[in-house]
Request: fold
Amino acid sequence: MRPVPVICRAAVFGLLACAGIGLWPAAAGAQTWPVRPITLVVPFAAGGPTDVVARALSVPLGKALGQTIVVENKLGAGGTVAATTVARAAPDGYTFLIHHNGMATAPALYRKLPFNPLTDFEYVSQVVDVPMTLVARKDLPARDLPELLAYLKANRDKVNLAHAGLGAVSHLCGMVFRQAVGVDLTTVPYQGTGPAMLALLGGQVDLLCDQTTQTTPQIKSGAVRFYGVTTAQRIKALPDAPTLAEQGLKGFEVMVWHGIYAPKSTPREATEKFNTALRTALKDPAFATRMAELGAEQVPDAKLTPDGLRNWLKQEIDRWGPVIKSAGVYAD
Ligand code: ASP
Reply:
């Protein structure tokens, strides 16, 4: 390696620089990752539940890494536009993706998926688990789940459900709900459930199944009708809320999990340091308190590893593939 030419201007560079010491290219390389801001790509609109987790996390994560985390919303096709972008991004350690169950459902939903979830990424860690809730516009006549089921039967094909595209958990939850109640629903896609929630609050759509990271404040303030949570057990953030399963929709269970990915061949130094910083960030008191208030649950340490994420992703692909195929839902 050749030394970088040194023009000796003592007033500017000082004595060592004048001697040429410390100005080899290796000196720049000696600065370890990360030396500049890191982009965290979110596959859905700003203000929605995935975005809420990413932005809350970006603060303690940036602190732990000593760099700014730039949250970038890359919208479209239920999260697959963002996943494709990150799969094709330079593997330089400065682009990461936060995504949810959509990473596992996309292979069954899209006949021509431009990326392979199991081979096109480096896996960093899972993040938090988030329950979902079934909510409706405030003036929908049905006040509880039995009334909603009766209303759906009496108004077949007239009720619509907002969602964030094929591959979104709001769509998946809607599909599971539709199968459980045996009533068809017209679906209305948005580029995230942030905008879908605005449409619900404005009375433009009827139903939405969405993460508690967005719905908890709306439920608590009474801005929406609320029919139950999608988890097997009741949740601490909404302790009085019944589950959909306990109200008769047997086996109804959808939990949203999140993973952090980097483009394939991203240096191990970056993914490992990101993982360590993430574990620190998840314990940050302000982040942990906010997440708990919004119903998010911590995940066990075994899932906070690259293998923990990849193995879970594989299991989820195997779980949802047949369900989606039997529902006959797909996009080209
Ligand atoms: N809740 C959305 C989904 O259905 C995504 C979002 O806007 O965060 O996947």
